[in-house]
Design goal:
36% of the residues lie in helices and 17% in strands. With 144 residues, the protein is an alpha+beta fold. The chain starts with a strand and ends in a 7-residue tail after the last helix. The structure holds uridine-5'-diphosphate and magnesium ion (MG).
Length: 144
């Protein structure tokens, strides 16, 4: 990653790939001005997902979450903006709250979903937590 850039990892979950929401979601980040660094539609293994959700391994929903994310292809992407423009924070605001019930209209979760277990888009929640998913999902030469 360029030193003067901040990256955020965003994904689109299997249901929403099947619902044909990829374009609507990508459009919001494009319109906002987040630059595309990497994007791929991937069928990911359970091992990969267990690694991705390692911080949640003791939560009651962990296995269901891994099974669900493994149930079909997901779209993973890395987006960036200049440091100081806070793309991680802005990305979380655009996504809405983890539970769609708490998400305001005009956010992605506020507009497209009603269930926490089917909440469309994960996104980095801190600048420090971006490197790990980016490295897990994309090789260096897949990030432009
Ligand atoms: N999740 C769930 N039940 C809960 C909390 C979370 O099924 O009570 C799922 C939900 O799909 C969420 C994912 O676990 O997107 C990861 O949780 P996290 O706390 O990291 O939320 P996020 O960062 O995706 O908003
Ligand atoms: Mg999270």
């Amino acid at each position: 990653m360029a030193a003067n850039k901040e990256c955020t990892f965003i994904a689109i979950k299997p249901d929403d790939v099947q619902r044909g929401l990829i374009g609507d979601i990508i459009k919001r980040f494009e319109q906002k001005g987040f630059q595309l660094v990497a994007m791929e539609c991937q069928q990911v293994s359970k091992e990969h997902l267990q690694q991705h959700y390692i911080d949640l391994k003791d939560r009651s929903f962990h296995n269901a979450l891994v099974d669900y994310m493994n149930s079909g292809p997901v779209v993973a992407m890395v987006r960036q903006g200049l440091k100081g423009l806070n793309v991680v924070k802005t990305g979380r605001i655009m996504l809405g709250e983890t539970n769609p019930v708490d998400s305001k209209p005009s956010t992605i979760k506020g507009d497209f979903c009603i269930q926490v277990g089917r909440n469309i888009c994960p996104g980095s929640d801190s600048v420090e937590s971006v490197e790990k998913p980016n490295a897990l999902w994309f090789k260096d030469d897949e990030q432009v």
